[in-house]
Amino acid sequence: MSAHAPLRPAAGSGRRARLGRLAGERPVLVAALVYLAVVLVFLGPALLPGKTLSSSDTLWFEPPWLSSKPPELTRPSNPELGDATEHLQLFLRGDVDRFPHVPLWNPAIQGGRPFLANLQSGFFSPFSLPAYVLPFLTALGWIAVLKLWLAALGTFVLARTLGMRFGGALLAGLIFALNLKCVTWVIYANLGIWALMPWLLVLTDRLVRRPDLLAGAGVAALVALSFLTGHPETSFHSLLAAGAFFALRLWQRRGDGGPGAALRTTGVFAAGVLGGAALAALTLIPFAELLWHSADIHDRAGASVDVHLPLQDLIGALMPDYWGRPTETAIRPILLERAMYVGALPLLLAAAALILRPTRERVAVALFGALWLCVVVGIPPVVQIVTRLPVFSSGHNTRLIVLAILPAALLAGWGLDDLAERAAAAPGRVRAVLIAAGVIVLVPVVIFLLGGKGGLGDAAQAAKVALMLGDPPGGFGVAEGEGVIRLAALLAWLALAGAGLALIAARTRFGLAPAAFVALALLLVTVDLFRIGMGYNPAIDRSVAEQPATGAVRYLERRPLERFVSTDDVSQNVIPMRFGLEEARGYDLPIIRRYDRLWRQEVVGGDDTVAAGLFNIPLRFTEPSERALRTLRLLGVTHILQGKATFFAEPDRLLPLDPLRAPGIDLAYDGADARVYRVSGALPRVFVVGGQRVVGGGDGALAAVTEAGFDGRRVAVTERRVGGVPVGGGGVGGEARVVSYEPERVVVEASSAGAGMLVLGDNWFPGWKAWVDGREVPVERVDYVFRGVPLAGGEHTVEFRYEPLSWRVGWIVSLVSLLGLVAALAIGTRRRRNA
Fold first, then answer.
1. Whether pLDDT at 136 is above 60
2. Would residue 554 be called left, alpha or beta, if left means φ above 0 and alpha means ψ between -120 and 50 degrees?
3. Omega before 100 cis (within 30°)?
4. What number is the average pLDDT over the span 461-468?
5. pTM above the 0.90 mark?
6. Residue 809 CB partners (closer than 8 Å, separation 6+)
């Protein structure tokens, strides 16, 4: 080469330059692509052919599938994700099976109950859309991709709105999407709302800057999507964050336009929130009706006052593996309630942000996060004040940790930007950052030494566990090697936090280039969060993701319209909702108050309520006592399903279950999978009685139907006199049979010797209507929980249809609101163009 030839930049530097230009010109596009790549790698194992994102293989470890468990399955993939198999995926599958029809009623559990109104079914959720266009097991992984991607990108846009540079904003989005709380809640509706929360804050900011129709419509749309996603309490938390952010931005712009402008802006924001609620009315109004008739609204009132996580759970913010992992060896269960890890370096960067530039905005964000952290871990007097407020007094306040995690992610982004601009920082503040980071790194060491749970003899094995080169001692159901697990957690922290401290020192003391510093920080945080979160939501083989009908299930399938109940060893919801059967138990909230009260008082035989504890929420059947069997017969339960064995401590040790023995039940099926018992004397699904017994209100009806001598075939218990039905002893008034049974429509043919009452043994609920021979008649509440209609003598065709007013009003309000939103968008767009 000639000495005068021009020097050419290296190919790598040219590509970096082009990438830098693209990031400057199209930052959102670049961030979207980066996040998509990260999320696809993070969830990639579940997106491969033959795989699915599910923990449904856990059902193979429970009756009735235990006896046919594939031999290659040695432990459940994640036994903590029972809600996925017993609740969330079942409802999503129900949405898919009935799409595009809107599923309003669920006859499969709890004697029949509303389907759409529980909100967690998420029929209108934007995150249900993949399930409507893709095979179900494929859709599960892409729903998770959509949630995490939107969470990351929304946080990036929010961070840019707050003035962050590309690197800091990119880091903030990465932290918020992949923090352990969001990762552990991927399967839940809550994460969908958390993913939309940064977007709601972005639109709130734009509304404050320009409070016009377009801004108000944008807020309304995001509020509606949050409500439609399916968890109203979490939507309330999201609105709480939006309200606080609105107040902050309004205060920051307090000099623009005076009090009149602030009042107008507040009005536009309030209209946006109310408009969003109106857009989601087709789900919110049915939910409000179900909540009003539920046990939850009464039993849970005040149940969360002063309730919080133990302060020691803050250890999880530094060493999330301190109590083991549910996918390996768990020392303590329910990680998803205690998850609060955002990464080691992000904590150091958050501290740096507050030291280097403690602006009012940053301090406000930090105080907001600290407030909710205090509620979660019970710092007085904050927890005492907040948990006595409406909603918080009866809510699951541990989930408020997300309102601390988002501020932590934003602070970390600011901190990264500040350190990348080290020249602008005072030397004293830089030294303070290094000291604070060193203190944070050493805190877990002090915790570990004071805890006294490890020893130097564990170091070699603990190092392998920390490096993910070996499994900790113990396994499924067996918590051994506590010292190894905790030492491994400490070693992992020291490696990651130490690397973060070294990176900060390299930038502040040794002049590491800003671009290299940002790139290495992003890489370190990605490795950190991948290490702790990847695999929590397992990628399992599709061949083991679904269970077939066993002999016991096929036995029950041959007896349509005969309700059964399972003992506690059998999972809730799965058999009835997967195989089209009907079980008297059920796990779905809110629970209809009367059914819940009858069940807990008579079947469980105690005063427990839905608020008594996490594991008390589902309706349970523990033993066939005389009192329990009397109520099961009233509810039309003809069979009891019991497993033959259950796991005890570890997979290769099974605990045999003794057969049930009680007067009035007989063994009808005895296979390798389960036992099924026939219950004698159960009421048929539909029947005719010749008279009514009028009592005073619900308490009187409950007392009457639970009397030892009550015979539901002879008399119906009513709470007001029903015209045309004799009052008195009555008797068997005729015959009836079901000729068509659909979720929202039941057709019965009945013959009555004289005036009487047709009783359908399904839950009464507002919205059920009836027609006798084509003439509409009121549906009466009889026998405390059932539906009944009066009959004259002769042959009749009775049709029940579920047409709730709450649904009709809801979709009309939503439709009108949608038209209003479209009009607002059109007018707002025209005004901006003409401005």
1. yes
2. alpha
3. yes
4. 86
5. yes
6. 281, 285
